[in-house]
Amino acid sequence: MARWIRSRRRSLPAGGGHRRTGSGDEEALTSTKTQGAAAAAKAEALTAGARFAALREALARIGTTLEESTTCAELTGAAVGLAGGTAAVLRRTEQTISGYEQITGDADLLPDARWATAVARAGGAPALGEPPERWLEYAGAPRTRAALCAPLKSGDDTYGVLVWARSGEPLHPGEAELLSLLAERAASHIRHARAYESVNRTAGDLQRALLSEPGRPHPNLDIAIRYLPSGGGVLVGGDWCETVRLHFGRTLLVVGDVMGHGLEAAVDMNAYRSSLRYIASADLPPHRVLRQMDEISSREADRRPATCLLAGVDPGRGQVTLASAGHLPPVLIADDGEATLLSVPVGPPLGTGLGGYESATHKLAPGQTLVLFTDGLVERRGEDIDASLARLSAVRFPAGDGLDEVLDTILERLDARHAEDDVAALAARPYSRHAGSP
Question: How confident is the model at residue 409 (pLDDT cuts 50, 70, 90)?
Fold first, then answer.
C-alpha cells in the first residue's frame, strides 16, 4: 500500500498537485492567437477584395455608350447592385430639372422629389466658402428607411443627382461614399455624352444647310425625292439629288455620291453641287458637263472623288440622255409596272482628272417613270452588284401609282431603311400638256 502511494505521488505534478504553465505552453497559446488574428485579417482582406472587385465591376458597367439616358440607367443599376434598395436619377439641364428617371427598384421607396430637386438645383452653387456636399441624407425619411442624394458633378458642372433609398437596414457612411463614387463616374460620362451631342447637333445643322433643296423642274416633269442617312442617323453625308431647268422645256436630273460620310463628305458634296449648277447653266450635253466637273474637281487635291449620274430629260421629244461618272444606271418603269435598267456608258468617278465620258439616249414616253439612285439603295455586303440590280429590276409596280408610292415601294422592297450606306433616290415622270392648257 505504501509502495502504491509513493508511486502515485511521483506521478503528481510538483507544487501540491497544481500544474504550472511552462514556457512551451505560453508559446503555443501565443501561436494560436497569432494564427487566429492572421485568419481574421485574411478573411477581412478577402471581404475587402470582394468589395473592391464588386466596385470595379460596377464602375465598368457605367458609360458604355455616349447616350446620356443609357448612362443614367447603368448608374441606377450599379447603385442597386452595390447597396440594394432603389435608385433613380434627376437630370439637370441648365436650370431645368427632370422628374425621376431610369428608376431601378421600388419607386415607392424614393424620397420626396421636391427635396431631391432642391439638391439638384443647389448642387452647382454651394454656400459661399463651403465645399460642395458629396452626398446628403434625407432627414425626412422614416426611421425604417434610409435615403440620400449624390450630385452628378464633374468639374464645375452639375448634371443632376443620383437618388437612392432603402428600407430596413440604416445607411452606412461607407455605402454613401461608394454611391458618391458611382455618381462621380457617371457624371464624367454624362459630360462626354452632352459634348458629343452638342457637336453632333452642330454638324447636323451645318450639313442640313449644305444639303439645300433641289431646283424646280419644268412643269412638264413631275419629280419625287427620298434621302435616308445610313443607320437611321440624323447626319447627312455625300449623297445628293439635283434638278436644273434647261431651255426648251428640258430638265437635267442629277444624283451624286461623294466617298465617305459625315461633315467632310457633305462639304465636298456642296462643292460638286455648286460646280454642277454653274456648268449646267451653259446648257451643255450631259457628258460635257461631267467632263468640266471632273476637270474642276481634279485641281483640288483635298476634294474626295464622287460618282455622278446625269439624265437630260426632254419631254417634248420623248427621250432622256444619260451620262455616268462611275455611277449605277437608272431604272425605267413602264406603264404596266415592269422595271428595266437603262444602259449608260460609265466613265471614271469625278475628281480623277481622267475624263472620257460619253452619253446614251433612250426613249422616255409620258407616263413612264425614271428612277435615279445611289448605290446604298441596292448594294449589300457579300452580294454581287449584278444580283443587287437584278433584285431592283424584279420589283413590279401597280399601274397608276404616284411617284411617292413608287419610291415608297422601292425603299420597302429593298429594305433601304436598314441599308449600310446613305440612300438617295429621285423619281421623275414626264407628261404631255394638252392643247389649250396653260
Answer: very high
